[in-house]
Structures are given as C-alpha cells and as structure tokens.
C-alpha cells in the first residue's frame, strides 16, 4: 500500500505542476481550449479497438467540450448517443477516481469494461488498476459522487 501512496503522491505533485485549465468545468477533463481526450476519437475505441487520433476538421461540441473524430460515421454515431462513448469519470484517471483524486487520463492508456471506456494516467497506474478492476470501479463510482464537482487541486489537500 505504501507503494501506491508514494505513486499517488508523485502523480499528485506532477498533476499539480502541470494541470491544464478545463474549459468545460470540473466534471470533464478537457484542455484549456476545451479539447477533450487530447483529440482522440471517442468512438474509435469501440469500433477500431485502439486509440485513434481524430481529424481537426471532423468535430462535435458536447457539454462545452470539443471532440474530434477520425470519420464522419464516428461523428454521427457520437452525436446520436454521446453517453455510449464518453469516458467514465469525465476522462479522468479511473484509478485516481478510485483513490478519491482527479488526475488527467491518458487516452492511450485505456480499457473498455462492460461497454464503458476507462482511462488511466500512466502504465504503472493502469497495471495497478488492472489487479482489481471491478473493485476499483466500485470505489471510483462511489467517490465520483463526491468529487465530480470539485477542482482536481482541491482534492489534493
């Protein structure tokens, strides 16, 4: 457990130093320009099965965040049912949410579980999360009710 606490502390420090402003509010992890998922196509995780960069010319605005898509078909699918493709915990790290924190999720460190997209902040964290995915999802779901509306930095106090 000390390894996890040390890892979380190190991540917290990194995030505190490098956290970008969020255009869409605290429930959504977006850049200061409002770009979600660092420009990755949210639909492609489900259709292609891997992170796929979206095209800056194919976009859709949802909850004040801009999503990019690799194809018009993916954009249409997203616009019909955005909730089916949005990452859990607003795109923040799933393991971080389980621990009660909000760390930037890395769109290249992902996993689909029961039809839901989860991101993590680093490969080490993702490996830890994968040791008990169901348990960490239960923890994160419970924590999310309390942390969704809070600024990431406020959770580190």
From TrEMBL:
<keyword id="KW-0732">Signal</keyword>
<protein>
    <recommendedName>
        <fullName>YHS domain-containing protein</fullName>
    </recommendedName>
</protein>
<feature type="signal peptide">
    <location>
        <begin position="1"/>
        <end position="23"/>
    </location>
</feature>
């Amino acid at each position: 457990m000390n390894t996890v606490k040390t890892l979380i502390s190190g991540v917290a420090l990194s995030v505190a130093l490098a956290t970008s402003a969020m255009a869409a509010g605290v429930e959504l992890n977006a850049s200061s320009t409002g770009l979600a998922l660092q420009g990755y196509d949210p639909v492609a995780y489900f259709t292609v099965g891997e992170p796929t960069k979206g095209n800056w010319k194919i976009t859709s605005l949802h909850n004040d965040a801009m999503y990019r898509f690799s194809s018009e078909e993916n954009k249409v699918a997203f616009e019909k049912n955005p909730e089916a493709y949005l990452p859990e915990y607003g795109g923040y790290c799933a393991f971080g949410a389980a621990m009660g924190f909000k760390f930037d999720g890395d769109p290249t460190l992902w996993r689909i579980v029961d039809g839901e997209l989860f991101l993590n902040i680093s490969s080490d964290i993702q490996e830890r999360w994968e040791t008990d995915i169901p348990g960490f999802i239960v923890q994160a779901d419970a924590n999310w009710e309390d942390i969704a509306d809070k600024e990431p930095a406020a959770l580190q106090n």
